[in-house]
Amino acid sequence: MESKRYKWTRRAIGIVSLLLVAATVIFGLWITPPDVVQGQLVRLIYVHPPVAWVAYLAYGITSIASTLYLWKRTRNMKWDLLAASSAEVGVIFTALTLVTGSIWGRPAWGVWWTWDARLTTTALLFVLYLGYLALRRVPATSHQRAVRSAIAGLIAFVDVPIVHQSVVWWRTLHQGATVLNPSLSPKIHGEMAMTLLLGFISFTFVYAWMLMHRYQIAGFEQKILDIELDQILEERLHEPGMESMQVELSPDVEQIDRHSKV
């Protein structure tokens, strides 16, 4: 059952997210000036880098939660649900990163897509986490699914620093980092820098709001699976000839139940 505090926190984050996104749109479209080189096209900078940042953040949360599940002292099914929920939101923002990047690349480079190092590694990141989500659909006990998904999530996260450093390690069409560059010297200033920062904050709040919703749904899904598992075991134990095996099956049933509870 959802607590009132969780409900109101999620609602408050949703309202703040809406206000921040609206402010980003207003500043990005009407208050900040066009760029000397890129003209009006530069306004995509208030969307494209922030959604890419959120994808990094989402996969980082997935990795942390996966690690906490693999560590026996902190093992809890809640960490697995958090990892899965964050990865799902991250996949959405990775898709947005690819789409907004293509929209920006068409007038800037003359093509919608090129096998540039940054684009290729980002596409690979998208595929890796789609594979992570697909792996979670493979039939298994809750514990088995959580363990193999956690390992897959940690392996997939290796591509995140590769994506970020790709413009440093290889010669690419993609421009270098605007803020988090090797020299840590931002290449954007004034109201444009303020609007970009506002974009990062607003999309981070959107991520938090989406994550809270998806985590709640994941909890409901897990409870339904637990109920279905209990019903199947109950039916099996009451089948003819199974009553005599109930004592031997009880330890296994308890073990399965212990791993599947949220």
List keywords for this structure.
elongated, mainly alpha, disordered C terminus, Four Helix Bundle (Hemerythrin (Met), subunit A), 262 residues, 74% helix
Describe this structure in words.
- There is one protein chain.
- It is elongated, with a radius of gyration of 23 Å.
- By secondary structure, it is mainly α.
- The protein is built from 8 helices and no strands.
- Helix content is 74%, strand content 0%.
- The chain has a single domain, classed as Four Helix Bundle (Hemerythrin (Met), subunit A).
Summarize the main sheet: none
Order of helices and strands: HHHHHHHH
Into which percentage range does the β-strand content fall? under 5%
CATH fold naming = Four Helix Bundle (Hemerythrin (Met), subunit A)
Provide a concise account of the structure shown:
The chain has 262 residues and is mostly helical.
SSE layout and pairing:
Elements: H1 4-31, H2 48-70, H3 77-109, H4 117-135, H5 142-157, H6 159-169, H7 190-237, H8 246-260
Helix pairs in contact: 1-7, 2-3, 2-5, 2-7, 3-4, 3-5, 3-7, 4-5, 4-6, 7-8
